[in-house]
Amino acid sequence: MPRRKSTETTTLDTKGAKIGEPIPKAVIDTNTASVGVPRQSDHDLAEEVGALRKQIGTLQQQVLDAARSAKGSAGKAMRQTEAAVKLYPASTLLLIAAVAGALAFAGRRAALPRRRHQPALRELRDLYDTIRERI
Fold first, then answer.
1. 33 phi-psi bin (left φ>0, alpha ψ -120 to 50, beta other)
2. Is the pLDDT of residue 24 over 80?
3. pLDDT for the residue numbered 63
4. What's the pLDDT band for 26 if we cut at 50, 70, 90?
């Protein structure tokens, strides 16, 4: 069902700007129909600087805690690796050799020239040669 039309009318603001007047560059508040720069809150800059310094101090502490945690984890991993090497020297040596071989093989495969387009190039050369012979 269609909505009923509103019979209420809004009153026009007669105090506002007139048609053709330039609009000032400022903030336009639609709630109060006022134009201008909003008032800044009256607070002390020293309080704001103090709050920012407190936030910086908190961030520095969080970064230091994260760095200590990472350093502790790295040290723990290093000690575990040393213990594994001492307990299983032959297995460690084989594992290192296998990783080095895999890296060398992958590097060699990447360095080899690709010859995918060689058959097509040969066919073009043969076609060119046959055309030359006919001419």
1. left
2. no
3. 95
4. low
Report whether 26 contacts 36 (CB < 8 A): yes
- List all residues 6 or more positions away from 34 whose beta carbon is below 8 Å from its beta carbon: 28
State if pTM tops 0.70.
no
Proportion of the chain above pLDDT 90, given as a percent = 32
Q: Which amino acid is at 51?
A: A
Length of the chain measured in residues: 135
Three-state SS across the chain?
A: CCCCCCCCCCCCCCCCCCCCCCCCCCEEECCCCEEECCCCCCCCHHHHHHHHHHHHHHHHHHHHHHHHHHHHHHHHHHHHHHHHHHHCHHHHHHHHHHHHHHHHHHHHHHHCCCCCCHHHHHHHHHHHHHHHHHC
Find tokens 């639609």 and name the residue.
30
Q: Burial code of 83-96, b = ≥16 C-beta within 10 A, e = fewer?
A: eeeeeeeeeeeeee
